[in-house]
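Researcher: Re-running this chain for the archive, since the previous output was lost when a drive failed. Same request as before.
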Amino acid sequence: MHDLNAADQLLHGEEQRVWGDAGYTGIHKRDEFTDRDVDWRIALRPGTRSKLTDPLQEMLEGIKASVRAKVEHPFRTIKQQFGYGKVRYRGLAKNTNRLYVLSAFTNLLRAEKYQAL
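Model: Regenerated structure tokens:
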């Protein structure tokens, strides 16, 4: 199932802004989101973005990509450095516990660069 189909379960209803990649294009038109007062920050599809000529639009798309990169970096660390790219069927409790531990390790690695300051 695509995240777009489960998006109403991902949002709690009190969001002011929602950031998403190009896969969420058109989410604001869905019936379950038409009544929400949300500022949708959805990235353009790569083909559409490459055709942009307005420098302001290019800058806005760059900002969207920058925010997404900051959010995605910890997941890259968990998947690549800690080897969690594939799901292990160990049970919900064990998988959840493992993700908590890996998230804590990721936070430690990210905070390590600020330790010297």
